[in-house]
Amino acid sequence: MKTISMKPNLKFLAIVASAGLFLQSCSSDDDSTIVLSAPEITNFKYGEGSSHSTEQVAYKGSDIHFEAEITAEATVSSITLSIHSHDVALAEGEVAWEFEQVYTDTDYMVINPTFHEHVDVPSDIPSGEYHIELLVTDELGNSTEVEGHIEIMDTITLSDFSIDSTVARGEDFHAEFMILAVNGIHSITVDIHAHGLEVAEGEEEWDFEMEYLEGYHEETAVEFHQHIDVPATAPAGEYHMVFTVEDEDGNTKEYESHIDVTA
């Protein structure tokens, strides 16, 4: 009887075992590589700064507060906040405004920071809707961005004007309009004057300036309604009128109009 040799089989099994150990080693190496997720931004809130409002409204000459919770598996390396507008028309005396700042404070360069900042809003920018972007980047280059919008408004808003356009001298005319003043009204001033009107015999040059406080001072929403007397001796012609509302923080808003004084 022949004896069958087992050596080739043992060699084959040894090769298979070695390959298995090699594959297991590679699999173990792969498992040791941990992929960290990009940062997460939650509870992103913003609004008028002084009251920490979350109504997504802010006022020119004031500030906007921002806050967000950031969950980061790797250390945060930067937080970028940007604000800009689209198709906002510039009025006289206004300038375009864009804001961008990269925050690298030590309080933010950690694993799970809380973002909290206040941004000043210039007083000479157009009111309207502005776009907000908050970008968080970690030290591995992972980044996450959230977006939003905020309405930037005037601290003083005048509307619903009803002002007489003509008046006979010796009579009075009425002027009314609505006022919204976030910081409260300090005063309302009316200035009426003419340029280059000839003063005839029996007439006297007429300039009018009056500050109104009663019923308006410290109010935040009120209707201005007054009747203004025109002297019988005022020269006939066109007069220029300026209504100026000043709030308790010193901000002002003007409205200009004209009135014809007839003989």
What is this structure's SSE topology?
Elements: H1 7-31, E1 40-48, E2 57-59, E3 63-71, E4 76-85, E5 99-103, E6 114-120, E7 128-138, E8 143-153, E9 156-163, E10 166-168, E11 172-181, E12 185-193, E13 208-212, E14 221-229, E15 237-247, E16 252-262
Parallel strand pairs: 2-8, 10-16
Antiparallel strand pairs: 1-3, 3-6, 4-5, 4-7, 7-8, 9-11, 11-14, 12-13, 12-15, 15-16
Describe this structure in words.
With 263 residues, the protein is mainly beta. Helix content is 10%, strand content 50%. The protein has one helix and 16 strands. The chain has one helix at residues 7-31; strands at residues 40-48, 57-59, 63-71, 76-85, 99-103, 114-120, 128-138, 143-153, 156-163, 166-168, 172-181, 185-193, 208-212, 221-229, 237-247, 252-262. The strands form four sheets. The protein has a five-stranded mixed β-sheet with strand order 2-8-7-4-5, with no helix packed on it. Strands 10-16-15-12-13 form a five-stranded mixed β-sheet, with no helix packed on it. It has a three-stranded antiparallel β-sheet with strand order 1-3-6, with no helix packed on it. The termini are far apart.
What is the annotated CATH architecture of the largest domain? Distorted Sandwich
Percent helix? under 10%
Number of domains: 2
Average pLDDT score: 89
The whole-angstrom Rg is 36 Å
Quick one: CATH superfamily of the largest domain? Answer: abc- transporter (atp binding component) like domain
> For this structure, what is the CATH class of the largest domain?
Mainly Beta
Strand content: over 45%
Count of runs of 4 or more consecutive helical residues: 1
Strand order of the largest sheet: 2-8-7-4-5
Write the element-wise H/E pattern from the N-terminal end onward: HEEEEEEEEEEEEEEEE
